[in-house]
């Protein structure tokens, strides 16, 4: 499509490419430009073109081209490149004679019939597939003339086919007006569909094309399959049909990309020359895509040589005709066999609502069905795939083998199936490669007991080798699991739900076992491989789930044999459906996917690794107990430490540590258990297999030569604009180090910052260090007296509580307690840096900006667990807030202003700059209020009190905070909710609606009604400006006022009237007074000018008056505000109306907006108040009704009052 605005390249090629001896060249280019401006269908791309051309002509830069055809070619390249539209061409044809083909509607009927018969071909192919070829899309007028012929010979015949191939491969001409009929034929009558928008540039009109609610003949509808064939020759209206049907998802396109024609192209002579420009004068925009088929063509769904399109379409229709049966077949199989019966209705509903429009092959259908089912079920066992093989029914073989009762035979069978050995270290070894049927196991019970359990009863550990176990009966797993548990306790192992049998079977500990049980205390080690499958991997999974064994080897195969596969009807698609659910002891259904061992090793190395893990497991209990003992001695929270110790031992007893296979996995498991139980992420167990250095070395005191290096490394300082100090240090040094470097630190760092007005302390990269220097650092930011309590430290090792205070004496000058401090934090800010930050925040000495800190420890000890290579990092001190008395270390420090760490410095500077403006803003605010607030005495009082409250603005951190607090203070000091900060919203541009639009607006803005006893009702929710109302007064009178003016009483409903301008109040009040006497309605005092304006009724009005004699009731609510209150106040004061409802809002006359100094803060200040000579003002207090009732009851109350009045008058 054409795109992009006018390019300078066009200027160069249009204006410099002129031949220089003739005087007409500039006119040629300007004429061509005018043609483009008047006719090109993308006028928005030509903005500024004519002016640019004229400027280039005036510059005199001319490239001489003497050959006119060459010039035409050059101009073509230029205009196409500039507007990115290949349809634009310039040609030199001095002898060109335009030939206009006759319009179809003007042809005789007989000729039209021959034309249609030659351009339409209809056949019914095998399987009732319709074939319709149309080589020219006839327009609306022609179709109307030939309607019965087309209906009887084409459309009604096509309607009876089961599916249709619509061949547009040879359609190279046609009219766009015929497109809506064709699209309508393949659509339903309702709802109507917007199918295209056509813009015609010469007429500057836009026409929308929609489907038709009624057509001649029977519709094909939108449910039967439709294939549209296209070729490189398909052009124009046929492209519009194909493009629309494709994007409505009504048809699949088969063939080649179409030509990419145009809605309408014209060849226009350029002035009086022999040059012509061919130009697209109309364009199409599809409402679905926002794009068009023009230039780019229609891309097919199936890209194939046009000659092969019919055969391919027939194959595609065969595939698509199978879709409904395939969906039904899949639905039936799932309904009958799928083991999650509760999910079946959702599956079927999802399949029913799925759009299969994009399916163009059997492979697409298989993939689509599989993806849809997977997205809903998330069950990897439920699979649909395409296969050329015959489907395989996967079933379990539950039939017992033919086994005789001969003891010798039974012993030989057990010897063959089970391999039992005693390995080194008194470790038992058991291998079997299939789980037998339960009935078989029952027959072999005595032999198994003798062969296996008698032989293994005295071993210390047991290795069960499942590396070659390919499955068998899941039910028999219960027998083996029972031998591996304590017979005195009842355990639930697993549950099997069989969808086909509709049975649920629970497997628990079996009683009366033949042979001695192995019990639950000794170690069991399961060996697995990639071949371990079905019941073999289910057993491995259960041993993990029950915490009864340690898995060693390879990830199992992930092959569950609880599924059936079925061929989907009339396709090569196979669906595999699980019909059994295997549910573990936790109630979770295992969906397969392979079991991951605790120790992943090669299958052939599994036995050796099992021996290593057995040896390691002998240490685990002592390591778990040692961890608990260290916690009880050192962890800062004793009650939690005791709990942790008990939890670790309980988890060991329950088998939770059978999954650990080395020091690394044990450390990880212990850490997870400790952090989960305590909620303290600072507890860590780690392993270190090299000799550790002393973990509690005293800090080294630096030499004189090292001091300068340390200061340069640790401290970064800067005095920023505005005399703002910046101090960054990335580690908390020990107090002894600080004392040693103190003089140099004060000279090189502190002396440069102490006289700044504000300081930013950057802790974003400070990960901690020593806490001993925190009191010293804090002291610099407080006064000498009184000493401040910073925080309290509880030390678990010594069981002492120490209050940490500021220091009475320090080297150098203090920063003091009055200047602002900002501390920047990040998630890296840790331990001692967090303590410093929290202390400064708790004491309101600093504002914290940045990210929440992670929550570290003031002090953590590292302790070796026994003589092992495991170590425990345990917080041994608790920091308690001096303000709340609570510990915060685990949760960290939450900033006052939370932003990304990288933005913290910029935000701090922005806050500092804002705070620097606050004194001037407060002063300017006070002056504005004193000089302009409607009530002079109140304004002066507010200004005085606001100046005294400047210290309360120290915590402001944003313009929003400032505006919020300033508004709250102004309203509190004045008692006026209308005195507040505001936004300087620019006024809306004036509207100039037509009279018709005015009438519609008035109908929406005003509501009138007529009640019993000729009681009128008038509601409007805002007062308009007098000048605006005056201009439309006649319209308001005609469409609103005349409906109520002749009533015997009137209810004016202002319950939802929020105010507006007061300039029209006098005029509206005047309608309720008589014309023969002017009434002084109110006196308005204007504070800025110090003048009082009298508000009188008007002598002349548009329309009739209501007068002063008829009853008037005004309804009010708490929402009634501003100008509406002034009207109510006047009418009540003069006794002209009865007020019914609630006390009004207590707002003010319309406030004025003032800018506060040079800032971006604006004030809304009421500058006018009503006359207070006869009583208190309504501003701020509201107008009290004569009859107070809830707002929602006011109308009924008013009607009741008036009806009663009229009823009494009739007696």
Write up what this structure looks like.
It comes from Salvelinus namaycush (Lake trout). Residues 108-305, 406-602, 703-900, 994-1190 form the Tail specific protease domain. Residues 1-23 form the signal peptide. Keywords: Signal. It is built from 33 helices and 50 strands. The protein is of the alpha/beta class and 1211 residues long. It folds into 7 domains: 8-92, no CATH class; 104-263 and 283-304, 2-enoyl-CoA Hydratase, Chain A, domain 1 (Alpha-Beta Complex), CATH 3.90.226; 407-497 and 509-562 and 585-607, 2-enoyl-CoA Hydratase, Chain A, domain 1 (Alpha-Beta Complex); 616-687, no CATH class; 704-862 and 872-898, Alpha-Beta Complex (2-enoyl-CoA Hydratase, Chain A, domain 1); 914-975, no CATH class; 995-1207, 2-enoyl-CoA Hydratase, Chain A, domain 1 (Alpha-Beta Complex). Strands 2-3-5-9-10-13 form a 6-stranded mixed beta sheet, with helices on both faces. Strand 9, helix 9 (237-247) and strand 10 (252-255) form a beta-alpha-beta unit. Helix 1 (8-15) packs antiparallel against helix 4 and helix 25 packs antiparallel against helix 26. Residues 4-13, 16-24 and 390-400 have low confidence and may be disordered.
